[in-house]
Amino acid sequence: MNQDNAEDQSVVALATAATAAGYAPSVHNTQPWRWRILADRLELFADRSRQLTAADPPGHLLLISCGAALHHARVALAAQGWTAETDRLPNPAQPDLLAQVRLTGRTPVTAEARRLARTTRVRHTDRRPVSDQTVPADALRAIGKAVSTDARIQLLSDDQILELAAAASRAGATEGADPGTREELEYWTGRNRPAGAGLPAEVLPEREPETTVPGRDFGRPGTLPIGPGHDRTAVYAVLYGDGDDPRDWLRAGEALSAGWLRATELGVSVVPLSGVIEVASTRQTLRVLLAGLGHPYLVLRLGIAAPEHAGPPHTPRLPTAQVIDTLDA
């Protein structure tokens, strides 16, 4: 194979990976990332124009979202038979350059790699109450193992779930009283949201679900049908890690993606709850629940989706031209 053909193949692989990264979960479906494709590597940048400046001024949730996209890109490269080396926050002079993914060689494609890549297309968020079926302990262990490369999860006891519920209520009240946060939420869920981004009505429940831990109040009802179920069998967990700097939050997003894809393979529904992270006092409550063992990044609700409900539609995605720059490839 001549050099030109080899470079063409690598560029195609990188472009495919950047496109697959677009299916990653992100807060309010903001998709706050931008990719630049070079001959032998991908560069991941934060797109601050899609940051939640009211709810997430430090950019923590932006970093988690971008970390999830980074993991999706790595999954796509493995499914194409490429090995890659990831350098996170490689240039202090460019804080929005979050990562470089450099191709290092070829590797046989495994069935697991193909399966994981397919899972990126079917993963979704279902905010409705889960069924009465309990999540198998083996599934919880597998999800915990999947995230363990970059973070950890702590399953909460019944008493801790009640504390979480109180903290979530406080966080909701705090953000509901803030005009900037309300305006921001209106923008990302309303009719004037950016084309290909945000949360359309069809992915939001038609009324407030009956849940132990309250979810986010989006300020408007959606059109997603919801039954009479409750979250009695739901498992709540805190995604956490040792550090609190931007690299740690980025890796938390990679862990979220890894755990969520594994959960999807096992038939476990995942709903991220970020409200308690967005308010400083309730995030501190989570630190207490962790007994000071680490920094909380996100709360996760895990459960088995109600079988009588078809999965909600997938959220829209931005056109590739808005998130991928190929001029230097």
TrEMBL record:
<dbReference type="InterPro" id="IPR000415">
    <property type="entry name" value="Nitroreductase-like"/>
</dbReference>
<feature type="region of interest" description="Disordered">
    <location>
        <begin position="206"/>
        <end position="226"/>
    </location>
</feature>
<dbReference type="InterPro" id="IPR050627">
    <property type="entry name" value="Nitroreductase/BluB"/>
</dbReference>
<protein>
    <submittedName>
        <fullName>Nitroreductase</fullName>
    </submittedName>
</protein>
